[in-house]
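Hi Y.,

Following your request, here is the sequence exactly as I used it, all 212 residues.
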Amino acid sequence: MIKLKPNLRSYQALILLVCLVNACVTINVYFPAAAAQEAADRIINKVYGNDTTPPSSTPPTAPPTKSQINPESSNQSTTVWLMPIVDFFITPAVAQANLDISTPTIQTLTANLTARHQKMLPHYNSGAIGLTNDALITLRDPNQVPLKLRNEVKSLVAQENQDRLKLYREIAVANAHPEWEANIRATFAKRWIDRATAGWWCQNANGDWQPR
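Below is the corresponding structure, written out as tokens. Let me know if you'd prefer a different format.
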């Protein structure tokens, strides 16, 4: 009977592979809240006309090299076969550091929101239009709008909400995670209000209206 001699390095490699598989599963379901907030701010700044942040000069983070993953064993034959698998699992982690908001559909929706915002701005300032706590807007006080303009403002509000809903869905789909739509909408809900101009009317978490 032939007895196989245990190979410690093989065991270590197998354990590493199992850990990477588990990490990959975590990455696939993890919602990047910080990246979502950054993406929301970039879009909202454009819509509100506050897009004055200079582009970052920090070079993009390169994917980990094989020596960085395991510098002590990079030359060991036991782990050479494992490196392509390591690269396969590590790359998605790096790629998901930011949300992609550069698709043509997202750019078109952002442009629509930006153009419409200028038409609605006087009604934000008067308090007629308010920001809801679910990332939309509403005609909060119709009496603040002249009667002859009321239907036009109602139409603007309806178009705005339609485009906002499309935007949240498109960001999730564009990043291959449609299940993130609710998280993205919740992120935008907070950031629309946080970045609103002082004096605009906003809903708090309880649904009560208050000036920003």
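Residues 54-63, 71-76, 90-95 have pLDDT under 50 and may be disordered.

Thanks again,
Q.
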